[in-house]
Backbone:
């Protein structure tokens, strides 16, 4: 029996269907970004929550191949949908012994790395966001997540501009995990970014969509990354970005690659947030 038969929500070629639904022709090299929003609120009581948006960029062909490989992996493990929170908490169906946990995580990381171009993230600590971002800008953004999204997507576009010079107006279609309470605000920020001359000169953004990660299983890869980024940054948020990279968790090192070439993004520290505010031409929060 096919392993796919064990997964009732698995749909072959879901990325193809998404391309058609967005009135885009299906092209093997069309770029798709799969992003997940993550909130790490498990820090010490005197520290503010960390907001993260993270995920992967890959071609349509790579996502199709990922679907096949990941669905087989899930079926072999007896899991319907991968959840890093449940995995970390050893909640069913992830109540495995240590040896099986290490093997499953190693296999998951290999599948993700084999079928994606690179990973990206944007993160901000809530206390620094409120202390530095001026009130009018916070009102426009509406939440920490739209800022995380903008920071993440700008790093994605920068890397694509460096790595993929043809075609010059190649479209990037972005999908965010379904259920985010501030999706509308993130979508508004996305539409605003589509109008930026700087963005349009590098890469043409398609619309932003949301989907259930049980159906579009590329989002499960993003879930893995977002969790690892959140936990890593919680541990090292007081260090510089250079020092943070030196102290990566082993599982995050596996996702980032031996020279970190597969990972772009940053937790924006106070100095970087101040620089961001200056680029907007806004006064700092008082």
Residues:
């Amino acid at each position: 029996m096919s392993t796919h038969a064990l997964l009732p929500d698995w749909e072959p070629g879901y990325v193809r269907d998404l391309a058609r639904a967005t009135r885009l022709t299906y092209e093997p090299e069309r770029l798709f970004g799969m992003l997940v929003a993550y909130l790490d609120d498990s820090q010490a009581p005197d520290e503010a929550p960390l907001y993260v948006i993270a995920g992967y960029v890959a071609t349509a062909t790579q996502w199709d191949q990922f679907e096949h490989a990941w669905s087989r992996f899930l079926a072999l493990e007896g899991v319907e949908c991968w959840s890093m929170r449940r995995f970390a908490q050893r909640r069913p169906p992830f109540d495995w012994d240590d040896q099986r946990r290490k093997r499953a995580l190693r296999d998951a990381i290999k599948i993700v790395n084999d079928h994606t171009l690179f990973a990206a993230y944007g993160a901000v600590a809530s206390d620094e966001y409120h202390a530095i971002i001026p009130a009018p800008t916070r009102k426009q953004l509406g939440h920490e997540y739209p800022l995380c999204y903008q920071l993440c997507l700008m790093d994605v576009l920068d890397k694509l501009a460096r790595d993929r010079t043809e075609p010059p107006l190649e479209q990037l279609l972005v999908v965010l995990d379904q259920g985010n309470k501030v999706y509308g605000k993130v979508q508004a920020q996305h539409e605003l970014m589509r109008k930026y001359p700087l963005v349009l000169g590098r890469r043409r953004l398609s619309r932003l969509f949301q989907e259930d990660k049980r159906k579009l299983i590329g989002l499960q890869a993003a879930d893995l990354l977002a969790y690892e980024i959140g936990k890593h940054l919680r541990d090292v948020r007081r260090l510089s970005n250079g020092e943070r990279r030196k102290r990566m968790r082993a599982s995050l090192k596996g996702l980032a690659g031996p020279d970190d070439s597969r990972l772009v993004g940053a937790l924006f520290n106070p100095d970087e947030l101040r620089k961001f505010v200056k680029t907007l031409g806004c006064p700092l929060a008082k």
Q: What stands out?
A: DSSP finds 13 helices and six strands in the chain. The radius of gyration is 19 Å. Residues 117 and 232 are 22 Å apart (CA to CA). The first helix runs from residue 14 to 21.
